[in-house]
Amino acid sequence: MKNLMLLTMWTLFLFTSTAQGQETKAKQFENPQWFEIVQVKYKAGQKEKAQAIIKDHFMATGMESNLPGPHMMLDLVSGEWDMIFIWELEEGIKTLDYEISPTGAKFRDAFMKKVGGEEKAREIWQEYYSYIQDWKTELARKWE
Question: What's the predicted TM-score (pTM) here?
Answer without folding.
Answer: 0.80
